[in-house]
Design brief:
- 27% of the residues lie in helices and 23% in strands.
- It contains 11 helices and 16 strands.
- The strands form 3 sheets. Strands 3, 4, 5, 6, 7, 8, 15 and 16 form an 8-stranded mixed β-sheet that branches. The chain has a 6-stranded parallel β-sheet with strand order 11-10-9-12-13-14, with helices on both faces.
- It is an alpha/beta fold and 348 residues long.
- The longest helix has 13 residues.
- Strand 1 and strand 2 form a beta hairpin.
- It folds into 2 domains: 185 residues, Quinone Oxidoreductase, Chain A, domain 1 (Alpha-Beta Complex), CATH 3.90.180; 133 residues, Rossmann fold (3-Layer(aba) Sandwich), CATH 3.40.50.
Length: 348
């Protein structure tokens, strides 16, 4: 089979690999669509994990082989995959901090080498411990919608961490694919969203996705504009890795408000924070990383029911052999680019 193999920093190669062999309790899935995720971009650009690997974890496809012990799935079914599944028994799982579970940190989907998602390949092996995360795609829904369950899950998990109620105001910093998902999911909860970005095209989209107010992030009077738009800002979501935005958000949210970090995943990333804002003003600085396994059902209802239309978020589709170009575009988005996916359905 063909696969895109990570061989080192910024080194992706189209290679021929063996089709993964599966065990009696596993699945073999022919990949249809795989989204390009910022998490993989950082690994590719900064070499945070050793090569060789086959990345790609926002994956959907068709089951082409099922082990003899697999009962829940059958050959021919279209499915969305979930590469991390928690043990549900450890300290972290009991506290619903699934991303910290040792079992969760194991990757259960591979196209070869050290398991790393494998979605940038023609076939992937789904290991037994990852089967509980597999979701069947309804007949009316697309492979793109199936592949988008994973990123929507991560955003819904983060939204659930916010102590906001209908009518509250939330400032979402950044209106790329993730920021737009935040805008939409918060709007579905009855929250008034203030959206900021550096691209006017994305601000226009933010309005369509439910933002009450939109402002350019480089507006020198941004703080005043936000203050005039909302009497109080109850929370802020930092959906871009901007340390300056963190500082500004800590100043902007009201006492007892929250600032949620979603994009600050680079190690040793430091920012100046006035600790009195946390102690005296009782503001919370919190983070959210990866997905919540228990939200799979709700995420499927949102995406497959098209309360959040993920097809409209996808602007660019690349063939498997063009994965390098897909990664380049996702790394440096243009005014007309949002979600980038590797789509292998055109080959069939």
């Amino acid at each position: 089979m063909k696969a895109i193999v990570y061989r080192g920093v910024n080194d992706l190669r189209l290679e021929t690999l063996p089709v993964p062999a599966i065990r009696a309790d596993e699945l073999l899935v022919r990949v249809a669509v795989c989204g390009v995720c910022p998490t993989d971009l950082k690994k590719i650009h900064f070499g945070t994990v050793p090569p060789p690997r086959v990345f790609g974890h926002e994956t959907s496809g068709t089951i082409v082989r099922a082990g003899a012990k697999v009962r829940k799935f059958r050959v021919g079914q279209r499915v969305a995959l979930h590469h991390h599944v928690p043990c549900m028994d450890c300290h972290y799982c009991r506290h619903r901090a699934f991303a910290q579970c040792a079992g969760y940190k194991r990757t259960g989907i591979t196209a070869g080498f050290e398991p790393a998602g494998g979605g940038y390949a023609e076939y992937v092996r789904v290991m037994s411990f990852a089967l509980p995360g597999v979701v069947k795609i309804p007949a009316r829904n697309s492979f793109v919608e199936g592949a988008m369950l994973e990123p929507v899950n991560t955003v819904l998990k983060a939204v659930r961490r916010l102590a906001v109620t209908p009518g509250d105001a939330v400032w979402v910093v950044g209106q790329g694919p993730i920021g737009l998902m935040f805008t939409r999911l918060l709007r579905l909860r009855g929250v008034k969203v203030i959206a900021t970005d550096l691209m006017d095209s994305r601000l226009q989209l933010a309005r369509r996705w439910g933002a009450r107010h939109v402002f350019r992030a480089d507006d020198p009077n941004l703080s005043d504009r936000i203050a005039s738009a909302a009497r109080c800002v109850d929370a802020a979501v930092i959906a871009v890795p901007s340390n300056a935005a963190v500082t500004q958000a800590m100043q902007t949210v009201r006492g007892s408000g929250q600032v949620l970090l979603f994009a600050h995943t680079k190690p040793n990333d430091e920012a100046a924070v006035d600790l009195s804002k946390i102690c005296v003003w009782e503001k919370d600085l919190i983070g959210s990383y990866s997905s919540d396994f228990m939200l799979q059902g709700e995420v499927a209802r949102l995406v497959f029911g098209r309360q959040i239309n993920m097809e409209k978020l996808v602007t660019h589709r690349f063939a498997l052999a063009e994965t390098g170009a897909a990664v380049a575009l996702a790394s440096k988005p243009t005014a007309d680019s949002l979600k980038v996916v590797v789509d292998q359905t055109a080959r069939r």
